[in-house]
Amino acid sequence: MSDTYTHPLDAPDADPTQVAEQAAADIARLTGVDHHDIAVTLGSGWGRAADLIGETVAEIPATEVTGFSKPALSGHTGAIKSILTPAGKRVLIIGARTHFYEGHGVRRVVHSVRTAAATGAKIMVLTNGAGGIRETWHPGQPVLISDHINLTASSPLEGATFVDLTDLYSSRLRGVALAIDPELDEGVYVQFRGPHYETPAEVQMAKTIGGHIVGMSTALEAIAAREAGMEILGFSLITNLAAGIQDTPLSHAEVLEAGQEAEPVISALLAKVIDRL
Ligand code: HPA
């Protein structure tokens, strides 16, 4: 063994599925819960949902789980929680996300999703804070993700793994959300690499190619979740209108503020949806 620390996913002979199985075993040992039914990644603005979904059975720092890194972002808690819903379902809450723009490679970006699948979760709920392209949308509004366009020029799939992405953001699960809030709008999420926000010209491009939401996460995670056989529900909180759609410059502070203001409402919505899944 060399003295230099190598991340378990970066080792030359690493198998991402095996690392995820190890992580799931860590979660089972540290939480005392050996199986989860649903997993939820909480992005900016969605943090409070965990408290409304059910009883927190255990909370552990993500850094104690194999392959998880410290969150690079304020607004992400870095905690993993095991929650028991009133209906008796086990929900794994992932408050730590590794973004593609951190430059650690796509394996680390999707490790939490693969770990969720290895804990037994059959449904993956992905949430994020994002920019809105539709002028009728306003900061603080939650929207369902109906499909995505992946502009990262990357994929979490390795080798000749040809995975179908039709109905990636399950119409069945969107139907469950719409039954709770029929006012929910939906749109196509466009993942850019970031971490810079888009230029107004890039936002116009995203619009022209069929996008409605711009962000820096989720699409790669959704692909990995589909590969792992999970059903996916995606929610974006519109924290701002995208560059050039709003005439003021974008700031991370504005994004966080919109998230904080919307948090109670969207968290309650998410908790209701999860209760029906
Ligand atoms: N673009 C990309 N990511 C974002 C945005 C945006 O406008 N707002 C919040 N995350």
Which features does this protein show?
single chain; 277 residues; alpha/beta; Rossmann fold; five-stranded mixed barrel; 7 helices; 23% strand; globular; binds hypoxanthine
Task: Report on the architecture of this protein.
A five-stranded mixed β-barrel has the order 5-8-7-6-9, surrounded by four helices. The longest helix has 25 residues, at 252-276. Helix 1 (16-31) packs across helix 3 (106-118). The mean pLDDT is 93. It has seven helices and nine strands; from the N terminus they run αβαβββαββαβαβαβα. The chain has 277 residues and is α/β, with parallel strands linked by helices. The chain binds hypoxanthine. Hypoxanthine (HPA) is lined by residues 129-131, 197-198, 214-216, 239-240, 242, 250, 255.
Q: What is this entry, summarized?
A:
It contains 7 helices and 9 strands, in the order αβαβββαββαβαβαβα. The protein has 277 residues and is α/β, with parallel strands linked by helices. The protein has a single domain, classed as 3-Layer(aba) Sandwich (Rossmann fold), CATH 3.40.50.1580.
